[in-house]
Write a structure and sequence with these properties.
The longest helix is centred in the first third of the chain and has 69 residues. With about 600 residues, the chain is of the alpha+beta class. The chain folds into three domains: about 270 residues, no CATH class; about 100 residues, Signal transduction histidine kinase, dimerisation/phosphotransfer (DHp) domain (Helix Hairpins); about 160 residues, Histidine kinase-like ATPase, C-terminal domain (Heat Shock Protein 90). The protein is built from twelve helices and 15 strands. Helix 1 runs parallel beside helix 4 and helix 8 packs antiparallel against helix 9. It is rod-shaped and about 165 Å long.
Length: about 600
């Protein structure tokens, strides 16, 4: 039986392990796939944020470049932020600047004449203009970009993903000259002095004219990086005009630190940690080729976002929900199968114990019946006294057989009982004194048969009241419960005799029946002076076909149904049967029966 049980559990464990292993493998695969999909979605969101940030940056830069492109060509060096700058060359006219030229990022303006003279608003800007003049030949400024300012070919993936062509088109529109800027000052007359040229320009401005048409070719604004001796590279916006006397360059130097801070703050809601780098040098170009930096279309600069861009937290996807439900369903199914298997094995054990117990209990009386019946039928017993003894033995064994069968049938009835079933037909209201008078003689006689003494103690409060309180019960059920308890005391209270050893003389043969009453229950306590029941067995003894420790190895008869049947009968009456500790000796069982409501 044990080997069969082990095989069943091993088979169940193996099957459950295979199912859980397959489900775990599927879970790992699905989780990895979902993690990969989450990474793809996060990267897609990150790229979309970068694309929006590039559009926002190029849009703001395009407006700044458009300011310079809208400044009339040949109009001289304007006023910076509303303050007149000191005149550095007599031939440059400082004009009143329109509102569009109030550029917070302009650090200085400069102009390079066809003759190579440089005019600027400050010495730093003058140095930048001279560097611009010396970088390539001045005549080639309109066609040749400065080193490091020509954009490398945009990577195809970035061009497609971040709308570089569209942004470049917007940037080219911003850098074109307006109709007003295409009008420039006339070419200076031969031999005219600087004062004459300045006065002539001033007169034209007073008349509302910016310049005479047809004297200079249109030019576009070009962002360029120039090296600075005192710090990082400087960003300038320069345009080269072609005049009859030669090329003339005009431009503005921008405050790159202020501009970068303003641009990064404008996209802080999209990319909180961002850096803008000049698109010059091997390191910057390597970042762009590796896909870690993204080129702006308006100026030669790179957007370097932080890798740890905050992305929305991923929620449970439908696939993960389905996986969770699958796990719950699988575990529930395995638990259900294990419960069914356990119940089946327990039922099998119960059946085996029942068959074994009934077979054992029926074998002895049936053997006695068969032997004595054969002896009496064959005339082997001629002594009348012996015949009477044999007949008495057959009567006792028949009573024992009847009790065994009745206990089994009664327990079967209790196990089939459901809540709400009708009460037992033998129930009636009875006082504690009447109940005691009915059961006491039977219990005393059973105790005397085993050499035990029944000591009855009744608390005075039991019969208190006029009339006394009653209980509704079946007296036969109460008698059967108490009889089972007395029989257990007779079986287990006295030590088993050891062959060849003298019987103990100090054995206490008393069995106590204490009857008390509480506000709600009538209590009947059965206690003996035996070894008692171990703590770990105090609930197990109420199980069906369970016998006390050592009972199976001893000669004590019994099915192991007595306590289970007694508890069932007690609960059928609305009471209970449990073990307790009141006298602190032996085995103590307390039967409680609900009291009827007191009469009004």
């Amino acid at each position: 039986m044990i080997a069969r049980r082990q095989r069943l559990w091993w088979g169940f464990g193996l099957g459950a392990g295979v199912v859980l292993a397959a489900l775990a493998w599927a879970s790992v695969a699905v989780t990895r796939l979902e993690a990969r999909n989450a990474e793809i979605r996060a990267e897609s969101q990150r790229q979309e944020l970068i694309r929006l940030a590039l559009w926002r940056l190029d849009s703001q830069l395009a407006s700044i470049i458009a300011m310079e492109a809208a400044r009339p060509a040949g109009s001289g060096i304007p006023i910076v932020a509303g303050r007149l700058q000191p005149e550095r060359d007599e031939h440059i006219v400082q004009t009143a600047s329109p509102q569009i030229f109030h550029n917070a990022y302009a650090k200085g303006f400069f102009e390079i004449t066809p003759s190579g003279e440089v005019a600027a608003t400050d010495d730093r800007t003058r140095d930048l203009a001279q560097q611009l003049q010396q970088s390539p030949p001045f005549e080639e400024l309109a066609d040749t970009p400065a080193p490091g300012s020509e954009p490398d070919p945009q990577p195809e993936s970035q061009a497609q993903s971040y709308d570089f062509a569209a942004r470049k088109q917007i940037a080219s529109i911003a850098t074109r000259e307006t109709d007003a800027s295409r009008q420039s000052v006339p070419a200076p007359q031969s031999g005219a002095t600087r004062s004459d040229r300045a006065a002539e320009s001033a007169l034209m401005l007073e008349d509302g004219a910016i310049g005479l048409p047809g004297t200079a070719a249109p030019a576009a604004v070009e962002p360029r990086w120039l090296d600075s001796d005192s710090g990082p590279p400087e960003l300038v916006l320069v345009r080269t005009l072609t005049t009859p006397d030669g090329p003339r360059a005009e431009g503005v130097s921008l405050d790159w630190a202020l501009l970068e801070r303003s641009l990064t703050e404008s996209i802080s809601d999209l990319l909180p940690a961002t850096t803008l780098l000049p698109a010059r040098g091997a390191d910057a170009l390597r970042l762009e080729r590796e896909g870690r930096a993204y080129r702006l279309a308006t100026i030669p600069a790179l957007l370097l976002p932080d890798k740890a861009v905050a992305m929305p937290k991923e929620r449970m996807t439908p696939a993960l929900w389905a996986l969770l439900v699958t796990w719950l369903a699988t575990l529930t199914a395995l638990i259900a199968v294990a419960a069914v298997l356990r119940a089946t094995l327990r039922l099998s054990d119960r059946r085996a114990r029942f068959v074994g117990a009934v077979t054992h209990e029926l074998r002895t009386p049936l053997t006695t019946f068969r032997l004595y019946a054969q002896m009496l039928a064959g005339g082997m017993v001629t002594d009348e006294k012996a015949k009477a003894e044999y007949l008495n033995t057959l009567d006792r064994e028949s009573v024992r057989l009847g009790e065994i069968v009745e206990n089994v049938l009664e327990y079967a009835r209790l196990t089939r009982r459901r809540p709400g079933d009708a009460r037992p037909p033998g129930e009636r209201s009875i006082t504690a004194s009447e109940l005691l008078a009915r059961v006491r003689p039977v219990l005393s006689r059973r105790a005397e048969q085993s050499g035990m003494d029944l000591i009855v103690s009744v608390d005075p409060s039991v019969d208190a009241g006029d009339p006394p309180r009653t209980v509704t019960c079946d007296p036969r059920s109460v008698e059967r419960i108490l009889m089972n308890l007395i029989e257990n005391a007779c079986k287990y209270a006295l030590p088993q005799p050891v062959p060849g050893a003298p019987e103990p003389e100090d054995a206490d043969t008393r069995i106590h029946l204490d009857i008390t009453r509480t506000d709600r229950h009538l209590e009947l306590l059965i206690a003996d002076h035996g070894p008692g029941v171990p703590r770990r067995e105090r609930e197990r003894v109420f199980g069906e076909f369970h016998r006390g420790p050592g009972a199976a190895e001893s000669s004590r008869p019994g099915l192991g149904l007595g306590l289970a049947l007694s508890r069932g009968l007690a609960r059928e009456m609305g009471g209970d049967l449990r073990m307790t500790r009141r006298r602190d000796h032996g085995a103590e069982f307390l039967l409680t029966i609900p009291l009827d409501p007191s009469p009004a």
